[in-house]
Structure formats: structure tokens, C-alpha cells
Amino acid sequence: EIDETINKIKKEFKVYKNYEYKNRYYDINIQRIVVLKLADLFNFNVYENENLPTFIDGIIRVNNKDKSIVIRSNLKPKDKRYLILYLLSYYMFHLNSKNINYHTGYGSIEKMQRNELAEYMARNLLVPKDELLKLENHFHNPEFCTKVFGTDEDLINLRINEIITKKKTLLDMFKLKKK
Questions:
Q1: Could you tell me the end-to-end alpha-carbon distance of the chain, in angstroms, rounded to an integer?
Q2: What is the pTM of this model?
Q3: Beta-carbon count within 10 A of 118 CB
């Protein structure tokens, strides 16, 4: 169900744009999500605030028709992109709620407050499988992949492992059927 939602967002909402990564060795074209465009599609206002409490990196609020996301202004751009997608993903799992007031920390101490489904969805929106597979020859060099996708190495490694695990599972299933 989550994968279907991600595919629908990618195909129907037009929130991805071509991103060209060029240097003297590579000329790579991928689709990267425009995070604020997705927020706008759900009618969210996104703000940065330097005065959030130290244990909060982002807040999502939905009250009647007012929708806002507030993120810590001193986060790195790659962390802001992920955090906004994480909060939007959280919202998508609570579409029927009229009131949402949820906050999260991005650091490891606050990991216990995270929603696993929202994290999975945010990772997949930020680094879609079909786009990451274009860099399959570079899986041995996650740092390169981070530059192309504008995210951090931990997230790239997690996505690579998710894709490799699925591939192995599918291959194993195929081998079992063949016997």
C-alpha cells in the first residue's frame, strides 16, 4: 500500500523534476523530489524557526484548515528536506485526523519518537528505487550517491540495503519456484 502511494505521488502529482549531476567523469540524470512543492500540494505552510526547544527539530500542526510545518532553521539542507518529507508522510498516515500536533527530533536521542512507516515513506520519496537503481554501479560508493540525491550516507546505505534485500528475496523466490 505504501509503495502504491509513493508511485502515485511520483506519477500523478508532478513533484519530481530532472536533476542533472555533472562533473568531468559523470553525466547523470535522475528525478529528485521538490519537497516544498509536495508540501504545497497538501496546502501546508512551511516555516523555519531558530527558537524551537533543543529537543525538537520539526513540528507538524493541523487545526481545521490551518496546516503548518515548522522546522529548526539551523539544520543542514539535506536534513530539512528529509524532515519535511517525514512530517508530510506522518500526515498522510493521519489524513482523517482533524487535529494533528506532532513533533519530532532528528537526533538519535529522539529516534524513539519516530514513526517507522513515515520514515519508510520519506526515504522512498527522497530516494525512489527506480532512480537509485540508475546508480547501481555506484552502490560501492554511497558517498557519490549522497551527492546525487542531496541526502546523507546513512539514508543512502539504508535504501541500497532495502533494494538489495528485496532483489535477493525475489531471486530466492524464483529459484524455489523453478525446482
A1: 31
A2: 0.84
A3: 22
